[in-house]
Automatic annotation (TrEMBL):
PANTHER family named in the record: 5-METHYLCYTOSINE RRNA METHYLTRANSFERASE NSUN4 (PTHR22808:SF3), NCL1 YEAST -RELATED NOL1/NOP2/FMU SUN DOMAIN-CONTAINING (PTHR22808)
Species whose genome carries this gene: Cyprinus carpio (Common carp)
Taxonomic classification: Eukaryota, Metazoa, Chordata, Craniata, Vertebrata
Example of a GO MF term: RNA methyltransferase activity
Biological process terms in GO annotation: rRNA methylation
Keyword terms: rRNA processing
Protein name: NOP2/Sun RNA methyltransferase 4
Length: 283
């Protein structure tokens, strides 16, 4: 025998009882708003500590230890002379001293054609041009915003006659494509890199920012692909160059990490606060 029950009453009763049911709130990692927010400079410092301490182990603590040094009593301060602002050209570009080392390692000869695949923001590009040996410079960076910054830098520091397309060519393209279309066109090539010191000091456009996570993770793969595309070429034989002569020449100014099997690494020191930067030269 069937009995009649009010449907509206059952629905209302169910709504009242569901309020007492415990709900589970899950934090979804894919939501950027739920992740803890750390400054990009702090993430860069953490990456610096973990990466170098894992590679150098006990040598890192020993290497960073600073010993007391005697300062010269007659030390003087260098003061720049008053510049000429009528030319609208800035007189000097501030950058870390180690940023000049890759330019010196390349040993650019007069008449050379250079391809710089990590030209922005422009410090190494200006250093290359200051050698007065570059016949033609192709400055490239993958992102357009960095390329615009490079153009502004060159406009501030170079006379207009040096900004000719026949001398300096600025592009924003994939470096691997340049390797296929411009084969055997360059005497020296500088591949993409990261600047650890810049990442630990500057928050703006930091590579450790959350928005650039994908770019940072792909950078080692990009570097490997650019190198392998040349190394596996059957018509070319690649050899790692010995840079011990370079270390001996600059060991009084920079602190080089010991016992590296390939390349050279400059680490910052309390008595010589330059770097970090890693260099490896292939021929």
């Amino acid at each position: 025998m069937a009995s009649y029950v009010c449907t509206r009453y059952c629905i209302n009763k169910f709504k009242d009882s569901i309020r007492f049911i415990q709900r589970r709130y899950r934090v979804k990692t894919k939501w950027a708003a739920t992740r803890p927010k750390f400054p990009a400079t702090e993430l860069a410092l953490h990456n610096f500590d973990t990466s170098y301490s894992r590679q150098l182990r006990d040598l890192l603590a020993l290497y960073l230890s600073c010993h007391a040094t005697e300062l010269e009593p007659d030390i003087k301060c260098l003061v720049f002379p008053q510049g000429d602002i009528y030319s609208s050209i800035l007189g000097y570009y501030l950058l870390d001293a180690t940023s000049v080392l890759p330019v010196l390692v390349l040993v650019v000869q007069p008449g050379h054609t250079i391809l710089d695949l990590c030209a922005a923001p422009g410090g190494k590009t200006l250093a290359l041009l200051q050698t007065h040996s570059v016949n033609y410079l192709w400055a490239n960076y993958l992102t357009g915003s960095h390329t615009m910054r490079l153009r502004r830098t060159l406009q501030k520091y170079l006379p207009k006659e040096f900004l000719d397309e026949n001398k300096i060519h600025i592009t924003s393209t994939d470096g691997q494509q340049l390797g296929m279309t411009e084969e055997k066109s360059f005497d020296r090539v500088n591949v993409p890199c990261t600047t650890d010191r810049h990442s630990t000091m500057v928050e703006e456009n930091n590579i450790f920012k959350r928005s650039r996570t994908n770019e940072r993770q792909k950078l080692p793969l990009l570097q490997t692909e650019i190198l392998c595309s040349e190394c596996v070429n059957p018509h070319h034989s690649m050899q790692v160059q010995d840079l011990r002569w370079f270390v001996q020449r600059f060991s009084d100014t920079f602190h080089f990490a010991p016992q590296l099997s390939v390349g050279e690494l400059v680490l910052p020191h309390l008595c010589a606060n330059f770097g970090p930067i890693y260099m490896c030269k292939l021929h």
